[in-house]
Amino acid sequence: MIGYIIRRVTYAIPILIGVNLLTFVLFFFVNSPDDMARLHLGVKRVTPEAIVKWKEDRGYDKPLLYHGSKPGMEKFTDTIFVRHSFKLFVFDFGRSDQGRDIGYDISQRMWPSLAIALPIFIVGIFVQITFAMLLAFFRGSYLDTSGVVLCVAMMSISSLFYVIGGQYLLSLLLRLWPISGYDVGWDAIKFLVLPIIVGVISGIGASTRLYRTFFLEEINKDYVRTARAKGLSELRVLFRHVLKNAMIPILTGVVVVIPLLFTGSLILESFFSIPGLGSYTIDAIHSQDFAIVRAMVFLGSVLYIVGLILTDITYTLVDPRVRFE
């Protein structure tokens, strides 16, 4: 197991380098350092001296990928890409183009992201599995058919519809919760209820339909027929045998999402004005702050790889047949 984890971490290094390189190329394909300087200086007429000073202060005065005038390996190391990207591997996020400490911002904004993402994750999993088991129990009936049609309809609707519909119905008409905003401490709960409800409802359709498929695959297997032949009730077969074995494929999509909870939801945080990492990333894209974009893409990649490793480890816990050599 330890050897497997070490190999996966080693394989992740070139992947992270490639992700950083792709992000770097895409960002600077759109904007040059001079364009970034003019944008952040925020005045109509920017002197060449001010542009040069801004680039020097933030390390953008080097060539992008290749420094031809330097000797040896400095041709590749004395560049914007190496100087700004390789510090990320020791989680030194540096400062944003506006001068803020990115690591501090992440440590502060991760808590609002968790406050909305964790309840959506826990409540959503419970609702989706319960609904899927209900459809599997009444398989072939009108209830099952209606449930599948409802799930297909829900997964076909854009998530923006749920956001706007929830704000209009629950905030403007019924006035149950604020339409957007955030507060500290326990006062934040009244601002989190509505986005949590919207997040749970918007994820029911696709996940429930997928989990129902997993349950139906298990129901048709030989060990389930044997359990029924021994006289076990359908409910006992469903909860004692089918649920346990169907959890193996369900863990594929569940465990990998857990580390990504820290990065927040881009849409929900933006529409509900929650100061989490999702809105932090959106604001950085709007302001063309490459330092923040680079840091958030790197953090998301690391968390996704961690999720994949956790998924493989979890397999060994729920399925004794899976072992790592």
Could you characterize the architecture of this molecule?
There is one protein chain. The protein is mostly helical. It folds into two domains: 2-90, no CATH class; 105-318, MetI-like (MetI-like fold, Orthogonal Bundle), CATH 1.10.3720.10. 71% of the residues lie in helices and 0% in strands. It contains 14 helices and no strands. The chain has helices at 2-30, 33-41, 48-58, 74-77, 80-85, 102-137, 142-156, 159-173, 189-219, 222-229, 234-255, 266-271, 277-286, 290-318. Helix 2 crosses helix 3 (48-58) and helix 7 (142-156) crosses helix 9 (189-219). It is globular, with a radius of gyration of 25 Å. 27% of the residues are buried.
What descriptors fit this protein?
325 residues; mainly alpha; MetI-like fold
Query: Compute the gyration radius: what is it?
Result: 25 Å
CATH architecture descriptor of the largest domain = Orthogonal Bundle
Q: Helix count, per DSSP?
A: 14
Highest-level CATH class of the largest domain: Mainly Alpha
Write the H/E string, N to C. Answer: HHHHHHHHHHHHHH
Largest sheet: none
* Poorly predicted regions: none
What class, by secondary structure content? mainly alpha
Q: Can you give the mean pLDDT? A: 84
CATH topology of the largest domain: MetI-like fold
The CATH homologous superfamily name of the largest domain equals: MetI-like
Query: How many domain regions?
Result: 2
The rounded distance between the terminal residues' Cα atoms is: 8 Å
The proportion of residues forming helix, as a percent range, comes to over 70%
